[in-house]
Amino acid sequence: MTTVALKPATMAQALARAMRDAMAADPAVHVMGEDVGTLGGVFRVTDGLAKEFGEDRCTDTPLAEAGILGTAVGMAMYGLRPVVEMQFDAFAYPAFEQLISHVSRMRNRTRGAMPLPLTIRVPYGGGIGGVEHHCDSSEAYYMATPGLHVVTPATVADAYGLLRAAIASDDPVVFLEPKRLYWSKDAWNPEEPPAVEPIGRAVVRRSGRSATLITYGPSVPVCLEAAEAARDEGWDLEVVDLRSLVPFDDETVSASVRRTGRAVVVHESGGFGGPGGEIAARVTERCFHYLEAPVLRVAGFDIPYPPPMLERHHLPGVDRILDAVGRLQWEAES
Amino acid sequence: MTVMEQRGAYRPSPPPAWQPRTDPAPLLPDAEPYRVLGTKAAEDADPDLLRRLYAELVRGRRYNAQATALTKQGRLAVYPSSTGQEACEVAAALALQARDWLFPSYRDTLAAVARGVDPVQALTLLRGDWHTGYDPYEHRVAPLCTPLATQLPHAVGLAHAARLKGDDVVALAIVGDGGTSEGDFHEALNFAAVWQAPVVFLVQNNGFAISVPLAKQTAAPSLAHKAVGYGMPGRLVDGNDAAAVHEVLADAVRHARAGGGPTLVEAITYRVDAHTNADDATRYRQDAEVETWRGHDPIALLEHELTERGLIDEDGIRAARDAAETLAADLRARMNQDPVLDPMDLFAHVYAEPTPQLREQQAGLWAEIEAEQEGTH
Ligand SMILES: Cc1ncc(C[n+]2csc(CCOP(=O)(O)OP(=O)(O)O)c2C)c(N)n1
Ligand SMILES: [Mg+2]
After folding, report:
1. What is the ipTM of this complex?
2. Which active-site residues of B does the annotation give?
């Protein structure tokens, strides 16, 4: 029997390791963005890559997000696999024209002749005390754009496994990194990084029988905490971590809701026009006869992201989640 | 102690971070558009090249006329004609080697055709049966690009990637005068210069962005001058002088291939037709203005040079016109056939593998179509 030396790693380190391993495995993989080279990125997620692979493989670009993504498109056309870092969620917006008009549809408009294997990493979400323009939950914009995969990890192992899958994918992947989980830690074996996770599969993070919390990214740990707290109320909650918003894993989600008969969708993004509306509709369409109550949503308010001293009121927390669970028409049970 | 005593001797000097920069003078465009035809420079031009350009211009003019006619017959949804701009279109295609890449806009189907793309495939976007009708890798022609200037960063990225891989490939991207106001124009030129990417930007200054004249687009001394701010050379050329456009572009391509970095070329030309067949140009310009440009027609200019110098005879001219008629007849015949459409194609290339959601939607459409067909039997 071999003893495995497990060591703590942060999500940021797991992401860096994923890029490092991908770059070592495939010379076509190029990392590019603002401050990703010498500095290693403002969140240090590209730490060490320029040193190990040189500035041609991990490039500090001029400050222009449309230019970064637009040139990455050209690089992908020529057979490279660019991994683009957008410095913050709200600073990816200048690149939206390239994203929507080209990245998302190049394969389609060329009938498959010109796929664009590129990964767009976007640190997203709040909870880090960031000032204006640093905490947006922009996933709904990406989800609403056909042709993009939209992926977001919630654990250290998934950060590695999903980013490897994103870089290996022949389709463009918007890889949303929950900022407030960058420093979350887990034990892993640095000699043998976690498995590459297929894109498009949700996982049940905690099994339970009373109701399902459907969530992703930064809200996964919050839901797990809520599930623990719910035991005091006598509820045994299941937590589904979507991991991939596009493609959406209807199978795993529906199976869970059919088992529990109740569901709450939890995310930081605003509720109106947010992912929760789509998810609630899908669950209702598929599980109507299994549902004991309407699918509820716990979301951020429909407001511009608040200043840091007020953000705790905006972000879905344990109490608000338990409150929603309490409104799942339990009267019928007794 | 005073501050000066603490800090040592005070010496007036430029700010410490300031460094003398490159001299902008060599980057500046000429005062007048560069011309070859009708000037001494024409004597150095290769007669074979001139004849080749002539044949392509004549073919191009006929292609434009045929495509415009197809809109009237309802065979094309819309056509942005490059009539009057054939010299730019043709020279851009001929200045490149087979291994190079062309990045055209919606107006540049002729450049794609001159590079070898099948005219029917070049026109599928405008017929409406599919967005891109050709495989971009076959002739190394990127998809026709409609969102203005967004193809420019692609050209830069592709050229940069080629250089990283050690291939001596050059990318040439075409954009209109209006497109130079877009942010992507700025970002592309800046990236190209910083990376010294082997890319050539050809601005076809045809006087208008739909209805808006250049004066409302920019206050720059010329569009070619914009190059200087990025640290690349700007060249100004008579866009209706095919020999001049070809020479300037070929120079820029050679310069890029040799590692000299990008060039911005502004070609002064004129959009003789309306913006598209759907546009009414009389709302914003005088016919008299169009007439002045007919006197500076790219085909007439080159034909004059060739006949004056005895480089072409009646037979040569007739051969060029016959070849053009052959292209037009073939285009007409094939465009008059209804394209074969498969609605299932809608789902085929959204992702490498359709998502479960798309599979469901595809099955739904399939059922709808089957029901429709049963209804008609
Ligand atoms: C981003 C964007 N905005 C607006 C349009 C609509 N549009 C199509 S062509 C055109 C004029 C472009 O003028 P110019 O760049 O000079 O090219 P030309 O049509 O003269 O060849 C406009 C405004 C567009 N295609 N893309
Ligand atoms: Mg124009």
Report:
1. 0.95
2. 271, 275, 284
